[in-house]
Amino acid sequence: MKFPKEGEFITIKSYKHDGSLHRTWRDTMVLKTTENALIGCNDHTLVIESDGRRWKTREPALVYFHKHYWFNIVTMIRQKGTSYYCNMASPFLIDEEGAKYIDYDLDVKVFPDGEKRLLDVDEYEEHSKKWDYPDEIDLILKEHIKILVEWINEGKGPFSEGYVDLWYDRYKQLTGKK
């Protein structure tokens, strides 16, 4: 499967552990792909929930996926500052339908002031029982939460100083937005 090129649009689909479709983002603009990673931008992007509800994202958001990490990172660019929503999820894959991953419920939110909060622990525990998450998945997710927090604390990847300016500026160049 060929990776999408800079400036192309792809669909992003998240699934649950049982294989059911969870959420779909239409028309995410690809800013960069490598053999292992994808960076894109959502800006007033149509989102379709599994129950059919539809809504649009309110602000520009950079999305970061990597084939070796069990998380993806959404960088929300807001007037009051940048915040991050990090989904604990399987590494992504790309096929003819777009980028796909399995969402494992747990999320880490990083607020503009740097505060970090682990979210949806109850949902994780509920789904872990409901869908019988293997112990191996639980261990992997716990290890990757540590890696994610290390990235946050050390300013690595999407948490680095120039990441937002570099990739949001590239998005504006590609779209002609000011």
From TrEMBL:
It holds the Pfam family DUF402. Transmembrane segments: none annotated. SUPFAM superfamilies: FomD-like. InterPro entries: DUF402, FomD-like_sf, Ntdp-like, SA1684. This is DUF402 domain-containing protein. It comes from Alkalibacterium indicireducens. It comes from the Bacteria. The keyword Methyltransferase does not apply. Keywords: Hydrolase, Magnesium, Metal-binding. Residues 18-156 form the DUF402 domain.
